[in-house]
Amino acid sequence: MTTANTPVLHPDLTPAQRDCLDALPLTGNYVVSGPPGSGKSLLAAHRAVHLALTGRHTFLISRSNLLRQLLRGTLQGLAVPGAPVDAATGHTWIHRRFGHDAPRTEDGWFDWAELTRRAAATLGEDDAATPHLVIDEGQDLPPGFYRLVRLAAASVTVFADECQRLTETNSTLTEITDNLGRSTARAEISGNHRNTREIASLAEYFRTGGARPDLPSRGGSLPVVRHYMGNKDLADDIVTMAARQPRQRIGVIVNHLPTAADLMRRLERAGLAREPQLYSSAASSGRYRDLDLARPGVVLVHRASAKGLDFDTVVVADAESDSATDPTSATLRMAYYVMITRARERLVLGWQGGRLPRHLEGLHGWVQMR
Predict the structure, then answer these.
(1) Helix residue ranges per DSSP H, 216-301
(2) Which of the residues 37, 118, 144, 217 has the least number of beta carbons within 10 Å of its own beta carbon?
(3) Which PANTHER family match (predicted)?
């Protein structure tokens, strides 16, 4: 088996993305960081295919099941024969590696210390079956996961952005690197190929740290902060957007699932040209679990599942739900940074109630108020 780079021509990558991909050897552990829109998920899929072409099974891992579905579609689009690669969630991979009775701690999360002990006990027993792992949105997995995969994988490549840490169990770039071992190398990918300059500028208002990325050159309309009289008013506006842009994808991001369910009922009754989709992590299968994220139309998702996704238009449906939160809170600012950067062309920050939420004050110049 060769350890030299075997780059595949990928015309959908920018020169900077190809350079980043081709600079990663096929052995060793790597942490690749970059801002929203830099193409980390796309690069993760290409990296997984490169590694799989060595003949060793490769898993492309995310914490979110919805992101797994998106990554699975990307892998299918690459369609490289003979490359043994699968998209999986971290939970699915652990169950596949350690069984469905993998030990857990009292908080319901995996017992990382015990799993690491088991991995160490079998180290080197079946080297041919030891997979490569590529992890997207790696900041959403805990440090214990990286201590485990250091022993349970032939190589680990992590794509991450610590300014997008939204989960209750997450890791900084330093924690990921330290837990993968001293030989772990770091790389960066820059650029924003998703957002307009106006959307990226608004996202910068909410960013919590790190170096300021270059703003995209592509321009567009100002994001909108819009007051809705109620869910009917909000649903009517979404219906109008869908009718005006029938070939585009509209992501409606909510903080409360009852809001999503109510909007779904209203949109279904509206008779949209394409049936709206709703994702629920509580569903085990079926229409609320398995979505077609590539087709045009309206998709309703909870903000916890929005990481890694993108839409032509994004509607943040219930910004008033954050009214009682300290507007300087890092958690709040990260949430809006992530939600805003999901939008390719248009962004609406919607709110209801009698007073503009505090975290949406002071945005004059970055947004239109309606």
Answers:
(1) 231-244, 257-269
(2) 217
(3) ATP-DEPENDENT DNA HELICASE SRS2, UVRD / RECB / PCRA DNA HELICASE FAMILY MEMBER
**Exposure string over 22-43, b if 16+ CB within 10 A, otherwise e:** bebebebbbbbbbbbbbbbbbb
CB atoms within 10 A of CB 308: 24
Size of the chain in residues:
370
Q: In this structure, are residues 88 and 61 in contact, taking their beta carbons and an 8 Å threshold? A: yes
What Cα–Cα distance (Å) separates residue 314 from each residue in 10, 105, 145? 28, 37, 32
Residues 105, 115: contact at Cβ < 8 Å?
Answer: no
- For 299, counting Cβ atoms within 10 Å of its Cβ (0-12 exposed, 13-18 middle, 19+ buried), the class is buried
Task: Report which secondary-structure segment, H or E, holds 188.
Answer: strand 185-188
Question: Residue 327's CB: how many other CB atoms inside 10 A?
Answer: 16
As a whole number of angstroms, the distance between CA 86 and CA 92 comes to 11
Residues 6+ apart with CB under 8 A from 55: 1, 84
Contacts of 351 (CB under 8 A, 6+ apart): 225, 226, 227, 228, 318, 319, 320, 357, 360
Tokens of 34: 């970059």
CA dist 35 and 37 (Å) reads: 6
Q: How many CB atoms lie within 10 A of CB 201?
A: 18
- Spatial separation of the C-alpha atoms in residues 76 and 45, rounded to whole Å: 10
- The amino acid occupying position 72 is R
DSSP 8-state code for residue 238: H
CB contact at 8 A, 305 and 66: yes
pLDDT along the chain (370 residues), means of 10: 44 87 95 94 95 95 95 88 91 96 91 96 85 96 96 97 69 95 94 96 91 90 98 98 97 96 97 95 86 96 93 98 95 95 98 97 94
pTM over 0.90, yes/no:
yes
